[in-house]
Design goal:
Blueprint: E1 3-9, E2 13-18, E3 23-28, E4 31-34, E5 39-42, H1 46-63, E6 70-73, E7 78-82, E8 85-86, E9 89-96, H2 99-105, E10 112-122, E11 131-132, H3 134-139, H4 145-167, E12 171-182, E13 188-191, E14 199-203, H5 213-216, H6 222-232
Antiparallel strand pairs: 1-2, 2-3, 3-7, 4-5, 6-7, 8-12, 9-10, 9-12, 10-11, 12-13, 12-14
Helix pairs in contact: 1-6
Bound molecules: cytidine-5'-monophosphate.
Residues 90, 92, 98-101, 129, 175-177, 198-200, 212 line the site of cytidine-5'-monophosphate.
Length: 239
């Protein structure tokens, strides 16, 4: 398979066409951004770590019946995925209050939620990814009502699978962001990445943050935290 022209460059990844139909080539970058791109840095080894971590999570989800775009890892920083058209909705799932939710509602970070919360954000850099609800999604024609029901159902299932898997690794899954895409055949599947860039992971004993909040909040040891996640979920840390 050959890597062809670049289709898209995001904050943390590049996406290329390939010589094979319906297959994209993704390259994970070391670049880190936060607060809608206002804070930028390079974190050595992040691309390698997230490529491996995401491959592990997406393979686990596939095994458990959650169809997703991951096909195979082809190098330290690259993977081949199924071609999809990303639905411009960021689906955030929360088990514990943190980040923007804690801020918005004045809740203490770490407050356990009596039930999972699902939020939708409009994936639009110019607007700063505003929170939206089903009515906005309908008017913006981002997804049909039935598709949204399906997305929510998949998000719940993904949360159950990841929460249980991580609990066994002594990691609390605080919250995470998902993106879904449509295949050329019209099926909605999970896409993008699942990594410490897109999830909040806390050590279950010490509550130490093992995710991108270390970068957002200048807590230091960002790479070490990502390595720790990879080690605990069974990957090999040789970056
Ligand atoms: O900032 P906030 O608390 O809303 O983030 C919720 C979750 O979604 C966090 O795990 C964060 O890493 C993730 N997220 C993301 N990309 C965004 C916004 C949030 O991965 N653009």
């Amino acid at each position: 398979m050959e890597k062809l022209e670049q289709l898209y460059e995001g904050k943390a990844k590049r996406v290329f066409k390939t010589s094979e139909p319906e297959k994209y080539w993704i390259e994970y970058k070391d670049d880190a951004t936060a607060f809608n791109g206002e804070k930028k840095a390079r974190i050595a080894g992040k691309g390698t770590l997230n490529n491996e971590i995401s491959a592990i999570f997406l393979s686990l989800l596939r095994e458990k019946g959650v169809d997703n775009h991951f096909i195979k890892k082809i190098s330290a920083t690259e993977q081949i995925v199924q071609q999809v058209k990303i639905i411009p909705i960021e689906v955030v799932v929360r088990n514990i209050a943190a980040g923007s939710l804690a801020k918005r509602l004045g809740w203490e970070e770490g407050k356990e939620l009596p039930k999972m919360i699902v939020e939708f954000y409009y994936k639009n850099d110019e607007l700063g990814d505003p929170m939206i609800n089903n009515d906005h999604i309908d008017i913006l024609e981002l997804a049909a009502e039935q598709e949204l029901v399906e997305i929510r159902k998949q998000a719940l299932k993904i949360n159950e699978i990841l929460k249980e898997f991580l609990q066994n690794k002594n990691i609390i899954l605080v919250d995470f962001k998902l993106e879904f895409g449509k295949t050329p055949a019209g099926t909605i599947i999970l896409a993008d990445e699942i990594s410490p860039d897109t999830c909040r992971f806390w050590d279950a004993d010490t509550m130490k943050k093992l995710d991108k909040d270390r970068f957002r909040r200048d807590l230091g040891s960002v790479e070490e935290a990502y390595q720790e996640i990879l080690r605990r979920i069974g990957g090999s840390v040789n970056v």
